[in-house]
Design brief:
- The protein is globular.
- The strands form 2 sheets. Strands 2-1-6 form a 3-stranded antiparallel β-sheet, with no helix packed on it. Strands 3-4-5 form a 3-stranded antiparallel β-sheet.
- It is about 10% helix and about 30% strand.
- The chain contains 2 helices and 6 strands.
């Protein structure tokens, strides 16, 4: 799931994909899904902390791009979930 200031988007983890999201201040994040993992591949933010977070593959992991308005990709964990819907605890962690 990717959480942005505009809402949440559920990404399928069983198919490779690349999706771009525009956050605050026009900052674009490119999120990549491959091999059941997710990462911020590119970001227009100045510090690139979200990009350096690397691949997320375990339940509860997340990365955040604060300059883009706290856009967060998170991972469902081990293969093979077709889509990921967070548990209440994970949802609370992502919205914190």
């Amino acid at each position: 799931m990717v959480t942005t200031p505009d809402g949440e988007t559920v990404l399928r983890l069983d198919r490779p994909s690349t999706v771009s999201f525009t956050g605050r201040n026009g900052i674009v994040l490119t999120v990549e899904v491959a091999d059941g993992r997710v990462r911020v591949r590119e970001s227009g933010c100045p510090d690139q902390i979200c990009v350096h977070s690397g691949w997320l593959s375990a339940s509860g992991q997340s990365a955040a791009c604060v300059p883009a308005g706290d856009c967060r990709p998170g991972s469902a964990g081990p293969l093979p979930p077709e889509t990921w819907t967070p548990s209440p605890a994970e949802a609370a962690h992502l919205s914190a």
